[in-house]
Amino acid sequence: EVMTGKLHFSLVAPERQLFSADVDQVDAPGLEGDFGVLHGHAPFMTALKAGAVTVYDGASTRVFNIEGGFADVTPQGLTILAEHAVEA
Questions:
Q1: Could you tell me if 28 and 71 are in contact, meaning their C-beta atoms sit under 8 angstroms apart?
Q2: How far is residue 39 from each of residues 45, 65, 84, measured CA to CA in Å?
Q3: Chain segment 40-67, per-residue pLDDT in tens
Q4: From the CB of residue 8, how many other CB atoms can be counted at a distance below 10 Å?
Q5: Exposed, middle or buried, 55 (CB in 10 Å: 0-12/13-18/19+)?
Q6: Under 8 Å CB-to-CB from 82, ≥6 apart: which residues?
Q7: Is the pTM for the entire model greater than 0.85?
Q8: Pairing mode, if any, of strands 77-82 and 69-74?
Q9: If you placed Cys at 56, which of 2, 3, 25, 30 could pair as Cys (CB 3.0 to 4.6 Å)?
Q10: Cβ atoms of 43 and 74 closer than 8 Å
């Protein structure tokens, strides 16, 4: 079955929400290795290490540098709660 549809992604830091939109894919730096999330991914939660969160949507790519935090994938989408985050 071909997965179509967008992944709802929110990136939240203590100061503010940096990003919230429907995108194609998000790659994030998990403690146990980098991972990618697409629409329809099975729910999971993982800790993040410092590194880059890359957001892909069509031809556009945005990169946010985070200092760590948590990623939570639910049927509603992906939320990253970062200890600190800034757009690269």
A1: yes
A2: 15, 22, 25
A3: 999 999 999 999 999 999 999 999 999 9
A4: 15
A5: buried
A6: 11, 12, 13, 48, 53, 64, 66, 67, 68, 69
A7: yes
A8: antiparallel
A9: 25
A10: yes
